Amino acid sequence: MSSNTEKHPPPPPPLVGFQKFQADLVSYLYADHGASYNQNVKKLEETTGSKREYFLYGLVAVSCIYMIIGSWAEFVCNLLGIAYPAYVSVKAIRTQDTADDTVWLIYWAVFATFALIDYFALSIMSIFPFYWMLKALFLIYLYLPQTQGATVLYHGFVDPLVTAIDKKFALTNQQSTRTAIDENNNVAK
Fold first, then answer.
1. What are the transmembrane regions (predicted)?
2. pLDDT recorded at residue 4
């Protein structure tokens, strides 16, 4: 059965997914991570008068600026898009559940499809300096469970593209077979 005909629960809109991720992240920051973490973060908050999530937002802002002007921006972007997904893919393979395998297989299929754009990355970078930052955000969008970006793009773009390619190959194969049969019949006459 083609995956085009299977029913999938609709993923949340991207903004809702990122809002859910932000809420989950703030909950994580305020969770108990041991006495040392709790004491140091509390001391930092008291000393600066700022909430802990503002420090994280500052770190994200600095990272985004680096992705625009930094000399290792491509490396950092690929680290986000390859290293973490590869790590969790291996962990998924080690589990008995195949649902997590499917999630990461879909990620890699979408990643590979859009990696073709990277062939033109240096050309794009010379015109559009925000390329690595936007690509990093795109890759994070793909693998966040709150956004399900890879699933959205797989079902909306990659799977229909592969289906169209399959149909084209099948048609070409039928035409080649007919041509070979016709040539055989002509030789036999």
1. 54-84, 104-132
2. 45
